[in-house]
Design brief:
CATH topology of the largest domain: Beta Polymerase, domain 2
Shape: globular
Protein name: Renal dipeptidase
Distance between the termini: 51 Å
Organism: Exobacillus caeni
Strand order of the largest sheet: 1-2-5-4-3
InterPro entries: NT_sf (IPR043519), NTP_transf_5 (IPR039498)
Number of helices: 18
Number of domains: 2
Pfam families: NTP_transf_5
């Protein structure tokens, strides 16, 4: 596995290499991998990468005797807390699906507990911080009304000009102060600009999951794989949990021809190649022979190597401020993840006014169209002011 990888993994902490060895398909754990292990760091990495439920389960079922008892106790406590949290999220998922169904709002669960059931076969083996739900964009106002009536509060407010939120952003967050439940209501799978399947396409290919008396809908297998690929890539695969999802979803019956067609249509076959490259080399995932050629493409290999940067250090892209060196690397990596077409669309999107333009020069709404010709001037003004400040 790691020792035979074409990826340069020499700078990955030995504690993380041990975790990969335990979690991988072949579970190649050698005696010398336990030498000089920092067990505090081992636990921190397991918690950071959100793989502690699976790690704890594998350790309790294995014959590995080199794990100190305090380490197993730490993982066990986290495992039990996660199980309770997942049970809570499952209840919330059921209630949200029922609420949408009763109000004729089609909704697709993107991740959450249904992913734990689908990929791992056990609710307690995957962590989820929140519920991600996809709804048609024209239903957002109705969903907002229903969630407000249920006690949810919008947790972030998107600044927008000329309705750019519809394609620049992809979700809005809600939080329930009593239930401590976080919801992300999506109208797109990923932030734009970029081409992706419409809600109607995804709805036609959806699957059903029966949860007690409530039917929950989630993505078709190929759509789910490509969503997990784009989501993990966008976050630099900075948490192993996302790569574990790829590891387990490849064991299901995925239609390779359909998968390749969809990935080409939406210009993300190179991201699929990156994900499968990482999973096969780090976790010994068996890749379908029909997909071998995209895994071995030069761009897939280059992007996979770039992602190793995030495994060499504990990168948390969700907590601000992100260190300057990490932020700079990540912004460059995000651009390299784009296909040629995506780069062209992205560069053109920079010509569209940003909310910062409206803040720099407030204009009445009926004159917002003037931000198009004024944008270069306003951008230059902000840059000049930035450098002029001490």
């Amino acid at each position: 596995m790691l020792n035979n990888a074409s990826l340069n993994v020499s700078a990955i902490p030995k504690e993380l290499k041990l975790i990969l060895g335990i979690l991988g398909k072949s579970q190649t754990v050698k005696k010398d991998m336990f030498i000089d292990i920092d067990w505090d760091k081992f636990c921190k990495l397991a918690l950071h990468h959100r793989v502690y439920p699976l790690l704890y389960t594998k350790l309790t079922k294995s014959d590995i005797e080199d794990i100190p008892c305090p380490v197993l106790q730490t993982l066990e406590i986290a495992f039990k807390k996660n199980t309770l949290h997942m049970l809570h999220l499952t209840s919330q998922m059921e209630q949200l699906s029922k609420l949408c169904s009763e109000n004729n709002i089609p909704c697709i669960i993107l991740k959450g507990p249904v992913l734990a059931f689908e990929l791992y076969g056990n609710l307690s083996l995957r962590t989820c911080g929140d519920l991600d739900v996809l709804v048609p964009i024209h239903k957002l106002e109705k969903v907002d009304q229903l969630l407000t009536e249920q006690g949810f509060k919008m947790d972030d407010y998107i600044e927008t000009v000329l309705a750019d939120w519809k394609w620049r952003h992809h979700h809005v967050t809600y939080f329930h102060p009593v239930l401590k439940t976080k919801l992300e209501i999506h109208w797109r799978l990923n932030p734009g600009p970029g081409k992706e399947p419409s809600f109607e396409e995804l709805w036609k290919r959806k699957r059903k999951f029966q949860l007690n008396s409530q039917t929950v809908y989630y993505l078709g297998i190929e759509d789910l794989l490509l969503f997990l690929v784009s989501h993990g890539a966008r976050h630099g695969w900075s948490r192993l949990r996302w790569l574990m999802d790829i590891h387990y979803i490849t064991e299901q019956e995925v239609n390779s021809n359909k998968l390749l067609t969809l990935s080409k249509d939406h210009h993300n076959s190179h991201l699929l190649g990156q994900a499968l490259n990482l999973s096969s080399q780090l976790l010994d995932t068996r890749v379908n022979k029909d997909l071998d050629y995209i895994v071995s493409k030069r761009k897939s290999e280059r992007l996979a190597q770039e992602a190793i940067y995030y495994l060499e250090r504990m990168v948390n892209l969700h907590n601000n401020p992100v260190p300057n060196d990490v932020a700079l690397y990540h912004s460059r990596h995000l651009f390299s993840l784009m296909s040629f077409n995506q780069k062209v669309i992205y560069l053109l999107s920079l010509l569209h006014p940003f909310p910062e333009d409206a803040q720099t020069l407030p204009l009445p709404k009926k004159f917002h169209f003037l931000y198009f010709p004024l944008r270069p001037i306003l951008w230059l003004w902000r840059k000049t002011r930035k450098f002029a400040l001490p």
